[in-house]
C-alpha cells in the first residue's frame, strides 16, 4: 500500500472512530496534561489495539504491521491532525516493546508483547535517580539475585506515569562494587506488589505525571532480565535510541498547532506590531520547518542502522525550540499572560506551556548532555573534565 493510500485509510478510520463514546476523548492528555481522561484514553488505547493501529512498525510476527517509515510518519501526522487523545501506551509501544524484540527471549516476547499491542499493560521507565539524572551511569539502585528472584532496593525519580503503570523497566546495579557502565542490569519489574511505593511529584504546572518510585525489597523473576547480568548499559542505550522514532513527526504537528495559537494571540493583543515579537514569531515558524527536515534525516539514519549525531541534534533542537515557544506564548499576551486564569492556580494553556516546556530540556537527555555528545563524539572536541 502506498503512502497516500495508507494516509487516506488512517484519516478515514480516525474520522469514523473518534465519535460516539470516544468523541469526548479528542484533545485529551499530553505533556503537562496527563491527568486528563485517563480511563477513556485507556479504553481508546485498547480500541486502537483491537483495530490493529498500535505498534505499526513492529515486525508482523510480533503483532505489528511491518509499516514503512513513511507509513508510520503518515499515521502519527494524521493522528495529531485529527486531535486524537495522547497515547497512554506510548512507553510500551515505543520503548520497551522494541527493546524486548531485540534483546528479549522467546518467553519475554510471548509474555510481554501481546498485552502492549492490545493496550492491556502500561509501562514506565526506571532510569533517573536523585544522584543520577543525566549521568545515568551513576545509578545506585541495586538488585541481588536471591534464589529464583531479583530483590531490589533503591529509588528512581522523574518516572513518567509510574502511578498508572503495570510494569517498569529498571536499570540497576547487580554487581556489588561495580562503577559507572559496568555491573548494570536491565530488569522488568511488576509495579503492583509489596516493596514498591510511588509518590507523585507536584510540578510547577500543578499536575503530577512525574513520580518518585521507591523499591524496598521489591521482587521480580530471575529470568525477567533483558540481556545478561552486567549488560544493562548496552540494553538501556538501545532503548534510548528507540525514543526518537516516527512519533516525533506527530509531535511537530502539535507544535505547529501551538505556534498557530501563539500567532493568533499576538494578533489579538496587538503584540504582532512589535518588530521584536514579529522577528521571534518568524524565527519560530522557520525553525519548525527545519525541525521536520532534521527529524526525517534522523529517522532515515536510524532505520538504516546508522545512528549518528542526528538523534542528539534533534533532541537538543526541538526541546530548546519548545522552551522558547513557551516564553513567546506568554510574552505576546503582555501583562495578562502573567495572571492566572482563576483561583487558586488555574493556568492558561500558554502558562502551562511556559512551565512544562522547561522539562523538555531535561528529560530524555538534558540539553547539557546533548551538547557534550555532539561536541565530543561528532566534532572531536576534548572531553569535559569529570570531577
Automatic annotation (TrEMBL):
<dbReference type="GO" id="GO:0050660">
    <property type="term" value="F:flavin adenine dinucleotide binding"/>
</dbReference>
<dbReference type="GO" id="GO:0005886">
    <property type="term" value="C:plasma membrane"/>
</dbReference>
<dbReference type="Pfam" id="PF02771">
    <property type="entry name" value="Acyl-CoA_dh_N"/>
</dbReference>
<dbReference type="InterPro" id="IPR037069">
    <property type="entry name" value="AcylCoA_DH/ox_N_sf"/>
</dbReference>
<dbReference type="Pfam" id="PF00441">
    <property type="entry name" value="Acyl-CoA_dh_1"/>
</dbReference>
<protein>
    <submittedName>
        <fullName>Acyl-CoA dehydrogenase</fullName>
    </submittedName>
</protein>
<dbReference type="InterPro" id="IPR013786">
    <property type="entry name" value="AcylCoA_DH/ox_N"/>
</dbReference>
<comment type="similarity">
    <text>Belongs to the acyl-CoA dehydrogenase family.</text>
</comment>
<feature type="domain" description="Acyl-CoA dehydrogenase/oxidase C-terminal">
    <location>
        <begin position="230"/>
        <end position="378"/>
    </location>
</feature>
<keyword id="KW-0560">Oxidoreductase</keyword>
<feature type="domain" description="Acyl-CoA dehydrogenase/oxidase N-terminal">
    <location>
        <begin position="3"/>
        <end position="120"/>
    </location>
</feature>
<dbReference type="InterPro" id="IPR046373">
    <property type="entry name" value="Acyl-CoA_Oxase/DH_mid-dom_sf"/>
</dbReference>
<keyword id="KW-0285">Flavoprotein</keyword>
<dbReference type="GO" id="GO:0016627">
    <property type="term" value="F:oxidoreductase activity, acting on the CH-CH group of donors"/>
</dbReference>
<feature type="domain" description="Acyl-CoA oxidase/dehydrogenase middle">
    <location>
        <begin position="124"/>
        <end position="216"/>
    </location>
</feature>
<dbReference type="InterPro" id="IPR006091">
    <property type="entry name" value="Acyl-CoA_Oxase/DH_mid-dom"/>
</dbReference>
<dbReference type="InterPro" id="IPR036250">
    <property type="entry name" value="AcylCo_DH-like_C"/>
</dbReference>
<keyword id="KW-0274">FAD</keyword>
<dbReference type="Pfam" id="PF02770">
    <property type="entry name" value="Acyl-CoA_dh_M"/>
</dbReference>
<dbReference type="InterPro" id="IPR009075">
    <property type="entry name" value="AcylCo_DH/oxidase_C"/>
</dbReference>
<dbReference type="InterPro" id="IPR009100">
    <property type="entry name" value="AcylCoA_DH/oxidase_NM_dom_sf"/>
</dbReference>
<dbReference type="InterPro" id="IPR052161">
    <property type="entry name" value="Mycobact_Acyl-CoA_DH"/>
</dbReference>
Amino acid at each position: 500500500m502506498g503512502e497516500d493510500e495508507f494516509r487516506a485509510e488512517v484519516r478515514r478510520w480516525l474520522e469514523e472512530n473518534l465519535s460516539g463514546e470516544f468523541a469526548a476523548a479528542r484533545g485529551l492528555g499530553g505533556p503537562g496534561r496527563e491527568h486528563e481522561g485517563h480511563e477513556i484514553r485507556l479504553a481508546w488505547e485498547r480500541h486502537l489495539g483491537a483495530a490493529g493501529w498500535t505498534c505499526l512498525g513492529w515486525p508482523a510476527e510480533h503483532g505489528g504491521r511491518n509499516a514503512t517509515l513513511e507509513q508510520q510518519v503518515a499515521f502519527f501526522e494524521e493522528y495529531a491532525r485529527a486531535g486524537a487523545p495522547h497515547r497512554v501506551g506510548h512507553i510500551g509501544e515505543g520503548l520497551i516493546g522494541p527493546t524486548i524484540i531485540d534483546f528479549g527471549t522467546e518467553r519475554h516476547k510471548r509474555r510481554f508483547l501481546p498485552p502492549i499491542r492490545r493496550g492491556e499493560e502500561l509501562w514506565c521507565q526506571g532510569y533517573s535517580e536523585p544522584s543520577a539524572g543525566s549521568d545515568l551511569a551513576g545509578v545506585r539502585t541495586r538488585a541481588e539475585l536471591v534464589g529464583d528472584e531479583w530483590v531490589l532496593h533503591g529509588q528512581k525519580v522523574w518516572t513518567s506515569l509510574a502511578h498508572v503503570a503495570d510494569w517498569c523497566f529498571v536499570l540497576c546495579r547487580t554487581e556489588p562494587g561495580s562503577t559507572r557502565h559496568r555491573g548494570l542490569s536491565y530488569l522488568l519489574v511488576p509495579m503492583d506488589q509489596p516493596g514498591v511505593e510511588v509518590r507523585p511529584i507536584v510540578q510547577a504546572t500543578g499536575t503530577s505525571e512525574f513520580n518518585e518510585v521507591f523499591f524496598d525489597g521489591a521482587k521480580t523473576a530471575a529470568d525477567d532480565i533483558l540481556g545478561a547480568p552486567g549488560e544493562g548499559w548496552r540494553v538501556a542505550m538501545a532503548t534510548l535510541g528507540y525514543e526518537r522514532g516516527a512519533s516525533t513527526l506527530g509531535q511537530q504537528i502539535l507544535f505547529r498547532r501551538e505556534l498557530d495559537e501563539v500567532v493568533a494571540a499576538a494578533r489579538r493583543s496587538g503584540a504582532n506590531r512589535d518588530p521584536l515579537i514579529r522577528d521571534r514569531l518568524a524565527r519560530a515558524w522557520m525553525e519548525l520547518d527545519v525541525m521536520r527536515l532534521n527529524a526525517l534525516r534522523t529517522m532515515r539514519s536510524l532505520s538504516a542502522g546508522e545512528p549518528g549525531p542526528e538523534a542528539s541534534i534533534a533532541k537538543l533542537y526541538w526541546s530548546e525550540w519548545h522552551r522558547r515557544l513557551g516564553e513567546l506564548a506568554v510574552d505576546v499576551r503582555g501583562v495578562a499572560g502573567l495572571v492566572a486564569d482563576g483561583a487558586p492556580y488555574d493556568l492558561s494553556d500558554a502558562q502551562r506551556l511556559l512551565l512544562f516546556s522547561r522539562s523538555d530540556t531535561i528529560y530524555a537527555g538534558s540539553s547539557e548532555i546533548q551538547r557534550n555528545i555532539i561536541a565530543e563524539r561528532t566534532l572531536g572536541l576534548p572531553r569535559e573534565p569529570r570531577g
